[in-house]
Amino acid sequence: MTALAFAESRNAALAAAGTREFVTVLIGGQLFGFEVTEIHDVFSLQDLTPVPGARTEIAGVLNLRGRIVTAIDTRRRLGLPGRTEGFAGMMAVGVEHDGEAYGLLVDEVGDVMRLADSAFEPNPVNLDPHWKTLSRGVYRLDGRLMLTLDIDRLLTVAAPSA
What we know:
Layout: H1 3-17, E1 19-27, E2 30-35, E3 41-44, E4 58-64, E5 67-73, H2 74-77, E6 91-97, E7 100-106, E8 108-116, H3 129-134, E9 135-141, E10 144-149, H4 151-156
Parallel strand pairs: 2-10, 5-7
Antiparallel strand pairs: 1-2, 1-8, 3-6, 4-5, 6-7, 9-10
């Protein structure tokens, strides 16, 4: 069985069971989730090369196994303040969008969680309007909300002005 066939078989099994799997991450103390099916890699940030003149949410570029990857500062994309310690010690979630490779910089990567579709809820009415455009909805987890981020919107919707 090829890797693609295995992934498709697993996705079909999850859908039939009424569940989804998410990679959990912390960004600015908030819990977020990315669907596992949208993630290519999770890696620790090594050498990051700044790109002169790039938008503020472009942290730089890096070399991942011979491929140039654009590193996106998710804190900036979400309108959060930057880290005082810069990008040192950050993790990245590797994704593809429109044929390009991106590393979404996050403070921490947590667990992979399998969650029931029935537990999924729409975004709260009092959620920040910009975050609403980037989130598909939420799950309630032990007194915390996990916002599910839409990677396409995260990479295309304009970041809030600083």
